[in-house]
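Progress against Task 2.4 (sequence-to-structure conversion) is shown through the following example record, which the project officer requested during the mid-term review.
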Amino acid sequence: MDTNELIGGVAGEPLVEAPSLRSQIYERLREEIVSGRVAPGARISPAETARRFGVSPMPVRDALALLERDGLVETAARRWTRVVELSPELVEELVPLVSLLEQYAVSSAPNVSEAALARLRAANAAFAAAIEEGDAIASIEADTNFHDTLVELAANRSLERALTDARTRIRLLRPQVVRPEESLQSVADHDQIIECLERDDQRGAARAVEKNWRHGLARFRAGRP
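C-alpha cells generated for the chain above:
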C-alpha cells in the first residue's frame, strides 16, 4: 500500500511523507483528543495507530511523545499510552485559573475592534447552530474559538503563554461541559460578554466571563457520578 494513503478510509486529507509526517500525526491525534472523539482514559496503541494511518510506528511514537509533553496523553513505559483523564481536583484548580486570566484579558483589552467583535459573534453563532444540530464536536470547536478570541483581545503574548498549558488541558474538559442539551445558557453568557464589549464595558465583560466559567464548572460538578 502507498504510505501516503490512510488505512480504513479515515476521513481527512492523505498524510504526506516525512519530514512533516510526525507533525501531521501529532495534529491528527491532538484534534481527535481535544474534540472528544477519543475519550479521556482511552488507550492509544502505536502499532494500531500506525496501521490506521498507513505509516511506520516510529513517527507515531514521536507524535505521542509530543502529546505527552502537551499533557494530553500519559505513558507507562512499554505498557500503554492513554488519553489523560482530568481529575475533579485538577478541574477545580484549572477552571478558576483560566477564568481569572480570561477576565484579565477582556478587562485589559485596548479598544476592542469591530473585526474582533465580528469574530466573537461568528464563533457564538456557530456555537448556537452546532447546539441546535446536536453536533457536540462542532459545539466544542466553536466554544474553543470563542474563548481563544477573548484571550487574543488583550494582545498580550505573556498572557497567552501563561494560558497555553491550562487551555490545552481545559479542552479535555469541554466534552464534559459542552453538551447540546445543556449549553444554551453558555450561548447566552457569550452574548452578554459581547454586549458588554460592544459598549466598552470591560468590567461587565469580565463579570460575564466569570459567570460563564462558573456555569461550566457547575455542569461539570452536576455530571460527576
